[in-house]
Amino acid sequence: MTSGSSGSSANAVGGRAPFGVRLRAAMDAHGPLCAGIDPHRALVEAWGLPYTLAGVERFALTCAEAFGGQVAAVKPQSAFFEVFGSGGVALLERVVAALRDAGTLTVLDVKRGDIGSTMAAYADAFLRESPHAPDAITLSPYLGYESLRPAIDLAHATGRGVFVLALTSNPEGASVQHATLDGVSVARSVVSGAAVDNAPARGRDELGSVGLVVGATVGDAVRRLDLDLVGAATPVLAPGVGAQGAGPAQLRDVFGAALPQVLAASSREVLGAGPDVRTLRDTARRTADALRV
């Protein structure tokens, strides 16, 4: 399955099937793992590499070689590239392009969120047609879900996707995401927004292209806040697998009937197998197989 492959031709955009369709096919083919590329100092140096642009380049391109064509999706963390300025951004574009050439979906972790023309500019920066555009990006909805409209609409127009923060596992997140207005939590309002945008896909029994980020270590919060992830037809990006403590049993407990929609993200545990390409690839494959529903 390539990032440009088509599913239902009636819904294809410029020959590219909607992101949700392509993600479902990739998860079915490779298992529900999203492997992270997080070249922060500790990991880069643990590989015996210098924490320089050259060292990060070696790290990131090794990951692209190991994961390309092997996992459902790869999630580069933009911040760890941006810290090196224009050279880091250029490297990130090369990583995304290499994964695209390997037929692997990319979810660029940028967590953008703003209003009006600024949000439209962020959308254009990451979701317009270009050789280095990722298949999906992460977004922050805390200026209001509808503030993300430029990115959501452009993603739909180009056959790409977004993952909107809904229920994160950091301790500080609950003070915002669990807060209620008229008895409805912020997290539930985000899920409701995604459900509206994914309604056409739900009617076709497909995954939509507006995904949600829900931490794999949030315990019973999905049930307690009454988040209808199944009804929202949303892909769910679930960070926290592996080194952060979540495994298949925890995913079943957290997500219940929505488990088949979950793309489990693992970075530190898989990346700890580097720098050997074969070992890194084998670790990613074993992790993906262990996560299959």
Q: What form results from the Cα inertia axes?
A: globular
- The side-by-side strand order for the widest beta sheet comes to 1-2-3-4-5-8-9-10
Give me the strand/helix succession.
HEHHEHHEHEHEHEEHHEHEHEHH
Share of helix among residues? 40-55%
Ranges where pLDDT stays below 50 over 5 or more residues in a row are 1-10
Any idea what the radius of gyration is?
A: 18 Å
Distance between the termini: 20 Å
| Count of DSSP H/I helices | 14
DSSP summary, beta strand count? 10
| Secondary-structure class | alpha/beta
Taking the sheet with the most strands, its summary is: 8 strands, parallel, barrel
Mean pLDDT: 93
Give the percentage of residues in beta strands. Answer: 15-25%
What does this structure look like?
The protein is of the alpha/beta class and 293 residues long. The strands form 2 sheets. The protein has an 8-stranded parallel barrel with strand order 1-2-3-4-5-8-9-10, surrounded by 7 helices. It is globular and about 55 Å long.
Task: Give a nutshell description of this structure.
Helices cover 44% and strands 16% of the residues. It contains 14 helices and ten strands.
SSE topology:
Blueprint lengths: L18 H12 L2 E5 L3 H6 L6 H15 L5 E4 L2 H4 L2 H17 L3 E8 L3 H12 L8 E4 L9 H10 L2 E7 L6 H4 L2 E2 L2 E2 H12 L1 H5 L6 E5 L6 H4 L11 E4 L8 H8 L6 E5 L1 H4 L5 H15 L2
Parallel strand pairs: 1-2, 1-10, 2-3, 3-4, 4-5, 5-8, 8-9, 9-10
Antiparallel strand pairs: 6-7
What descriptors fit this protein?
two-stranded antiparallel sheet; alpha/beta; 293 residues; 44% helix; single chain; 10 strands
